[in-house]
Amino acid sequence: MKLISIKYTTCFAMAAVMLLAVACKKEYTDPNTANSDQVVKSAVGLTGVVIGIQKNYTSTRAGAVYNLITTDGFLTKQLLIVNQGNTAEYQFYLGGNQVFNTNSIVISFWTTCNKVIYDANTVLTNAPQLGDKGYASGLIAYASIFKALAIADLSMFWEKVPDTTGINIPVNFIANTEGYNKALNIINNALNTVAANPISASFQSNIPAGIDIVNTLHALKARFSLYTGNYAQALAEANAVDLTKKSTFNYDLQNLNPIFETATSTNNVYQPLDSTMGLPPALAPNLADKREPFYISISASAPRFRINGFYATSTQPIPVYLPGEMILTKSEAYARMASPDLVNAQIQLNNVITKQPASDPFGVGAGLPADNTPYNQAQLLDQIYRHRAIELYMSGLRITDQRRFNRPTAERTRNYLPYPNVERNSNPNTPDDPAF
User: Fold this and answer.
1) What is the DSSP string of 320-379?
2) What's the CATH class of domain 31-259+316-322+394-424?
3) Torsion of CA 249, 255, 260, 266, to 10 degrees
4) Beta-strand (E) ranges in 93-132?
5) What keywords appear on the UniProt entry (predicted)?
6) Domain ranges for the chain
7) CA distance 433 to 420
8) Other CB atoms closer than 10 Å to residue 122's CB: what's the count?
């Protein structure tokens, strides 16, 4: 089934973000679009919805990708504020009680993630009813990727997360650790669906290029398994990912790379803090580490350190995950198992340390000699954290790593975000804000 030009029709308007709406309780549909019952019962309409979900998640300053990378970068001291007039980013730079419930990034991040979950639920409810099971499988897997990412994003930055989304009902909250388990359940369902009915070529041809669906499902399962302490599963899933393949959020001249659009191109919002990549001196990058110039360029004018890497041009793709993340997932899984295997943990760590840029699909490589220091478990975990921080610089994943590796709170400006006022003002079940 070929859906002619679906990527360029107005079908995806069904999933347009209503960013000023209450995140968990509002009706999100647009009164100017097609009747929702008609849209969600057809392959064409559901394809438009999933394209809209991707656009909402990945594009503009209001999207989850910008909010994830920016919030994480400031909270973990990777970034320098260039212009304090950018109030939301400046509050993150200051941290502590200077981050308010009215912060525009707090609001847009929360609202966009809940919008993505809401629209993904529409797809996951209706796609199984389609006659073409291969096409339905693609819809389910694609929507599941973004729903799982959105739930995990909320879980990384808030102590408690909504248990569901609804219309005009008070929503209950669950611990963020349960959020990761919900994301894993979504991924498992998608993998089972794809195993039963492989994704059809017609679905693949009607969505934006970039995302390797099956590899991404395994990579996200590996990531969230690590976060929940299921190290055997994390290892198995990381091994299931084909590390020669790329999976990316792609951009074009109509939908620009959001970090480039807001920060890199203007030099008026933020830039890297310095060459330490936000790490303390004992864990700072080796001067010969080739990942440093990949991610950070040097300017003759202030600020000296500039954004590079995946945010250097307007149409540069952003990885959904990096091969190095999967290798380091294996290393950490070996190191943290009930019977730690430090030998294999260090072998995997050295696979990242010695990786040359030319051998990595994205050109990310340290190119350093192997580290054969006889570390104990705690020392090895410090090195794994160090190389995750460098390999995954400006990926949005460091705040979770800092908590998981028990890094000192002095290395971040906050542990968790306050709940946005748009939620608190309309939902009596909203938890108290964290102290830090």
Assistant:
1) SS-HHHHHHHHHHHHHHSSS--HHHHHHHHHHHHT--GGGSTT--------------HHH
2) mainly alpha
3) -170
4) none
5) Cell outer membrane, Membrane, Signal
6) 31-259+316-322+394-424
7) 9
8) 22
Q: What is the pTM of this model?
A: 0.93
What is the per-residue pLDDT across 319-344, written as a single tens digit (0 to 9) for each?
999 999 999 999 999 999 999 999 99
CA distance 180 to 245: 25
Judge whether residue 409 has pLDDT over 50: yes
Q: How many helices (H) and strands (E) does the chain have?
A: 17, 8
Alpha-carbon distance 436 to 424, whole Å?
18
**Cβ neighbours around 264 below 10 Å, total:** 22
Structure tokens at 409: 């709170």
Instruction: List Cα–Cα distances, 431 to 161, 174, 180, 428, in angstroms.
Output: 9, 10, 18, 9
Question: pLDDT band at residue 383, thresholds of 50, 70 and 90?
Answer: very high
| Spatial CB neighbours of 206, under 8 Å, sequence gap ≥ 6 | 2, 3, 6, 7, 47
Instruction: Report CA dihedral (184, 337, 391, 211) to the nearest 10 degrees.
Output: -30
Give the start-end residues of each E strand in 240-287.
Answer: 248-249, 270-272
CB-based contact 331:314 (threshold 8 Å): no
Give residue for tokens 């970034």: 79
Q: Which of 388, 392, 376 is nearest to 309 (CA)?
A: 392
Tokens of 207: 């969505």
Q: How far apart are CA 354 and CA 72, in angstroms?
A: 27
313/317 Cα distance (integer angstroms): 9
Cα distance between residue 367 and residue 357, in whole Å: 7
Share of the chain above pLDDT 70, in %: 91
Retrieve residue 205's tokens: 């041809």
Residue 420: which residues within 8 A CB-CB, separation 6 or more?
Answer: 23, 101, 102, 103, 106, 107, 110, 111
CB 44 within 8 A of CB 139: no
